[in-house]
Amino acid sequence: MAFNEKFLWGGATSASQFEGGYNEGGRGLSHMDYIRRVKKADKEKVFPINVTVDMFEDHKKHEDEYNFAFRRGVDFYHHYKEDIALLGEMGFKTFRMSISWSRLFPTGLEEKPCEDGVQFYHNVFKECHKYGIEPLVTMIHYEIPVYLTETINGWESPKMIDYFLHYTKFLIDEYKDEVNYWITFNEINMIMNSSYLGGGMFVEKSKKTPEACIHQALHHQLIASALTVKYFREHTSKGMIGNMICRLQNYAYTCNPEDVLATQQQSQFNYFPTDIQVKGTYPTSILNYYRKKGIEIDWYPGYESILKEGTVDFASISYYHTAVISAELDKAEPIGAFIRNLENPYIKMTDWGWGIDPTGLRITLNDMNDRYGVPIFIVENGLGAHDELTSDNNVHDNYRIEYLRAHIQAIKEAIGDGCNVMGYTPWGCIDLVSCGDCQMTKRYGFVYVDADDEGNGTYQRYRKDSFYWYKKVIASNGEDLD
Ligand code: BG6
What we know:
By secondary structure, this protein is an alpha/beta fold.
C-alpha cells in the first residue's frame, strides 16, 4: 500500500478568498480587501494583486464603486456548517484553512482579540472535529490588517514581528487543543513575485531599492516564523508546525551547461526560504547573491540563533506547474521564481497557461526528500478551469479528475521512491475567488459555488463529478483512482 493509514487527505482554502463576512463580527479590513477585480485582467495579463500606492489611494476613494471580490469570498462565514459537512461527506481527514488576522485583531495593534472572531474559529474547529477532520491552519495566508500597510508599510517594518507574534501566540494558546497542524506563512517566497500581496507593502515607499526592500521584508517574515515555531515548541505538547513555499520545479531549456547553471540558480532561489526554515541558516548562495547585488539586510538582533531554534517539523509546498529556464533568453537578472517560463513542448497547458506536469511533482518530492529529510506536505495543487453548471445542477469536470488522478499517481510513485509525504490538500476544494485574477471564473473545487465575478448568484453549493470521485479516492486511501 503506497499511502500509509495516517496520510492526510483533504483540501485547502484561505480566509481572504473563501471566508467573506468582511464587515461582520467586528472584523477589520485587510490589505487583500483593497485588491479589486480588473476586467481586462484576462486579456492583457494585468495582475490585480500588484497594487501600487496610487492604485491603493484610488481604491480607497472609490470604496463603493469597485469590485473587491476578496471581501465577499464565497461566504464561508455564513455557510461553514454546510461546507464542512460537504468535506465530511467526502471523507476529508484534514481541512486547510487560514485565520484572518484582522478578524481577531482589526488593526493588528489591539491588546485583546475581538470575541466574535475568536468564537467563529472555535465554531469552525468544532464543526471539523464533528466529522473527524483535523484542521490544518495557516496563520497568515498573505493578508495583514490594512492599518499596518498604511501606517508602517507592512512587512518592510521590523515592528511587524512583534505584532505578528502577539497574534500567533494568541492563536497557539487559544486553539492548541483543537488544532494539531499549523503552517506559519503561506508561500513565504511569494513576496518576491508580488510585494503587495506577500508583504502588504509598497516598495515605492521604501528608501531601499525594490529588491532590497523585498528581501528585508522576507527577513522579517522568516524571523517572525521562527519565533512562532519556538513559542509553539515551548507551549504545546502535541502537534506539528511547518513552513510553506510556492515550489517551482525548473528544467533547463537545453543541456548547454549555461542553461543548466541558470536552472540551478533559479532552483537555489526558489528553495532558499525552505533551506532557512528547515536547516536554520541562510544558504551561502543567497548571501552571495546579496553581496553581488549590493543588497544590504538590516539583520534582526540575534537572528542566527533565532533561525536555528525555529526550524520546522515539516516542509509544505504548493505545486501547480514547472518552468523552463534558458540562460540565453533570460538576460534580465532574476528576482523571484517566475523569471521566464519558456514553453515546454512535452506538457499540456491549462486554460490559464499553467503547464500540467505530474512527473514534475514526483521530481520535486524526491528532490525535497533528499534535501531536507523532514516530512513533505503538498498543501496546494489543482486545476483552475472553466466549469459549467448544467440545467440539472451538475458539473461534469472530467478534466479535473484527470488532472488530480495523474498528480495522485505521481505522489504514489514518489512514495514508492522512498519519499516521506504526509498529506495532500488540493486547492480550493470548494470554489473560491482565485487569487491572481481576483475572479470566480477560474475554479478549482470539488464543490461548485453559484457566484460570478461580479458577486451575483445564490452562493448555493453543488457537488461536481470530481466530488464523488475524490470521495472514492479517500475511502480507498488512494488505491482506487478510476
Ligand atoms: C497559490 C496561493 O499561489 O495559488 C493561493 O497560495 C492561490 O492563494 C493559488 O489561489 C492558485 O492561484 P490562482 O491565481 O489560480 O488563484
